[in-house]
Amino acid sequence: MIKSEQTEKLAFWLLLLATIIIILPVALVVILVLVKGVPAITPEFIFGMPRDGMRAGGVFPAIVGTLCLMLGTAVFSLPFGILAAIYLNEYSQKNWLSRIIELAIINLAGVPSIVYGLFGLGLFVTFLQFGASILAGSLTLAIMTLPVIITATREALNTVPKAFREVSFSLGASCWQTVRYAVLPNAIPGIITGSILGLSRAAGETAPILFTVAAFYLPSLPQSVYDQVMALPYHIYVLSTQVPNVSEKIQYGTVLVLVGMIFVMNIIAAYFRTKLRKRKTW
Amino acid sequence: MVIKETKSKIQVTKLNIWYEKTHAVKDVSFEVYEREILGVIGPSNSGKTSFLKTLNRLNELYPGFKMDGEILFDGQDWRSINIQLLRKRVGIVFALPLPLPLSVYDNIAYGPRLHGIKKRERLDQIVKESLTAAAIWDEVKDRLQKSAFKLSGGQQQRLCIARTLAVNPEVILYDEPCSGLDPISTHKVEDAMRQLKNRYTQILVTNNVKQAARVSDRTAFFLMGELVELAETKQLFTAPQDKRTEDYITGRFG
Q: What average pLDDT values come out for chain B (254 residues) when binned by 10 residues?
């Protein structure tokens, strides 16, 4: 056999192997969670309150809590993130200020989530006196999600061909008219996809909500944004480390609910992405 | 030779253009007359597109663009004209057909809507007039609501001309408008230009020397950022004053 053929074969199998190894952990996690978690899923588990020191009953308050936090995070992060991205991409000149802002956003994305948690504790809980509340938790998660949303929005805006802007300007459009009528309509599916992925990441975070909102055990539903709530990621942590003698079934059931919620969000994001690809005609 | 009315529409004095450190247009001065077709020929990188896109200030969208010199538009300093209004008055047709991802109708109505025209009847009228003027109405009148991307390249380019006409410009700039088109489509686009002659001042930048000879009244020859020669088309092609012009139009260049 010629040497190049041998190296070709070796390279092929090496690359394939690496790819398969990537699939393995994902598949194992999903299978494990499904096998051990599915038996726990009953209407009572989803819609019931936890009982017996969280060793029985359901996870309904944690589900509601996580949904509240998602909504709050969306309310705070989407408008600011999307508007800032539009400014950076369509308006700002390339100068030292815009470079500093871009650097700040990149660094914001690299800050460990526990640091966001402590920041939220310091600013929202203590200094602004929101207390541990949905408001404080949402704001903390929103700040953490901002870089993801800004980056995703800018990518979506960049996929719109420059020529569309030039055409719009050449017909006498202002900058805002160009953004509004030539750019945004073609970028919105991408912005939605990126935003959902950013929010779904926030849904699974534990550290930022640890000090800002998450309740250890609170078998009731929140009445206002100043209430504490249980949240699924923290609840999982509590079940697996803080409460003795919790059945594996309940632990895995809770994990399955969280993974399921994030999975649904990602499916919605993927749906928008394929829809975008189909509509894209340029 | 027919004596033409030679009212000045655009007057350029000592125009210089830089991109970063590249000196793209060097000390160019000349006049464009009202309702003429001015052809601009020259090899790639000769500064003809840079010059063109300066007239409606589109160049300012590109980073690193710098210029000096004076441009008078109807005798008025063009910088004192509101930039959106200037771009409305000086329309451009790009090298490649660039329809927006909208229907045929909405492509044409895009410009008028920007300038505040909302009434359906008025828009209908503008769409029909513009498409007719660009010699494409008969081909698209039954599919106004279809995507503009469904049209052929030549149709798309005439659609773009119609879109430019829809904002009621005074000057139309063409940036190598037929570079991506087959000869038949090219012929149709040229026909459209001729038909627009009595209403608009047109400047046609083209890589195709023969196209300038066919369409334009006067022709300018650009080389490496300099305006080498500007003369009546007939004279430029039969008795060029400059050796470099002669070399270029006879294909003996370089």
A: 68 89 88 91 86 89 87 88 91 90 92 91 93 88 90 89 92 88 86 88 90 91 90 89 88 66
pLDDT in tens, A82-138: 999 999 999 888 888 888 998 999 898 889 999 999 999 999 999 999 988 999 999
Structurally, chain A folds into a number of domains equal to 1
Residue A34, domain member (yes or no): no
* Structural fold of domain B8-96+173-249: Rossmann fold (3.40.50)
Contacts of A171 in chain B (CB under 8 A): 87-88, 91, 110-111, 114, 163-164, 167
Asked if B61 is an interface residue toward chain A (Cβ–Cβ < 8 A), one would say: yes
pTM of the full structure = 0.83
SS (H, E, C) chain B: CCCCCCCEEEEEEEEEEEECCEEEEEEEEEEEECCCEEEEECCCCCCHHHHHHHHCCHHHHCCCEEEEEEEEECCEEHHHCCHHHHHHHEEEECCCCCCCCCEHHHHHHHHHHHCCCCCHHHHHHHHHHHHHHCCCHHHHCCCCCCEHHHCCHHHHHHHHHHHHHCCCCCEEEEECCCCCCCHHHHHHHHHHHHHHCCCCEEEEECCCHHHHHHHCCEEEEEECCEEEEEEEHHHHHHCCCCHHHHHHHCCCCC
